[in-house]
């Protein structure tokens, strides 16, 4: 019997975190350390990666080295010809968090034009202009999306929800901290799933009580269970009133608090949201589990002459500072654990993780040979990529660290993908 394929388009592909989570690597699963088979029906048939700030497209080159150039586009997504994108079942991507406000509308309708360069509107354009838009969507973003911008907390997410609602999708979301479910890094991101009205998942949601779907019956809840102990005010619900322009101008204006909790559902313009707590009793992966125990190149070890600078940057501070205009101000910040504890999951990797210069935010571990920074392989392991996935001639270790600062924890995608696959195929 022929295997049913779920055709995937991957946007903002980076070095392929979504693809690794959905397809695995060489048929193997990230959650098994790429040792056990991943029973995947997903197949990425088109991908796009474009980094506007760099001349040489290193991430795209890594992606092509791993999966080949067939079906891969290294073009600014905002200029991509929709006809180049093949029909597909699932649209995925970790799109950047920006200001999503609406600049104008077109009289000839479907046409909402967001501010130029805002990449959400590139996704919206594909969903609007494709004759057969994807029935399923799977997106990832930073968790502050739920409370942005500061003067209209939650407006950006409300715009995304309303635009998906207008296009005929139901949406569920959850903020997942990867370490709270046994993964090696404390990386908190919001994961968003959307289902077209024609799908069986949409029809199932319509039959469910919203709270039951969010907390037990939903795809994300099945992948990452939550505790039944919910805060006293329980489920909050409200309607997304008005069109996208109205929401852009007026949503939550003048209020200090956001309206979206870390977990929720939107269907037929109505939002249901609740604050949930993770419910996990499995094994936890700690920093020591991913550290290379053998020889590590001397370039990663911290020079004794720079230890004082490292201690200062990592330490607590209360001091008088002066800005470029000569204005003096009191500056204070708390101390960080230095070196990083090996018996806990790591802190979040940032894009500036690479390079030898002292930094408050770079990871430093203590070994029997002294203090050292993390290697590119260790950074890859913290995101559950295969060892040396980002290794390529002409790509520096600093650039490889940058890739991992922009990447996602592959195991989270794999876990959600397994449940999504079951529901799509009706298993």
Describe the fold and architecture.
The chain has 13 helices and 16 strands. By secondary structure, it is of the alpha/beta class. The chain has two domains: 6-282 and 411-425, Rossmann fold (3-Layer(aba) Sandwich), CATH 3.40.50; 292-341 and 350-406, Alpha-Beta Complex (DNA Methylase, Chain A, domain 2), CATH 3.90.120. It has a ten-stranded mixed beta sheet with strand order 3-2-1-4-7-9-8-11-12-10, sandwiched between helices. Helix 2 (58-67) links the parallel strand 2 (42-48) and strand 3. The two termini are 16 Å apart.
Structural class: alpha/beta
Shape: globular
Q: How many helix segments? A: 13
The helix/strand order is: EHEHEEEEHEHEEHHHEHEEHHEEEEHHH
How does CATH name the architecture of the largest domain? 3-Layer(aba) Sandwich
- Biggest sheet overview: 10 strands, mixed
From the 3D structure, determine the CATH topology of the largest domain: Rossmann fold
N-to-C terminal Cα separation, in Å? 16 Å
What is the count of β-strands?
Answer: 16
At the fourth CATH level, what is the homologous superfamily of the largest domain? Vaccinia Virus protein VP39
Query: What percent of residues adopt helix (DSSP H or I)?
Result: 25-40%
Number of domains as seen in the coordinates:
2
Per-chain topology:
Blueprint: E1 6-11, H1 17-23, E2 42-48, H2 58-67, E3 72-73, E4 90-93, E5 102-105, E6 112-114, H3 120-129, E7 136-142, H4 155-166, E8 169-177, E9 188-196, H5 200-207, H6 210-217, H7 219-223, E10 236-239, H8 244-250, E11 263-267, E12 270-274, H9 287-290, H10 307-314, E13 317-322, E14 328-333, E15 364-367, E16 370-373, H11 376-382, H12 397-406, H13 410-425
Parallel strand pairs: 1-2, 1-4, 2-3, 4-7
Antiparallel strand pairs: 5-6, 7-9, 8-9, 8-11, 10-12, 11-12, 13-14, 15-16
Helix pairs in contact: 1-13, 4-8
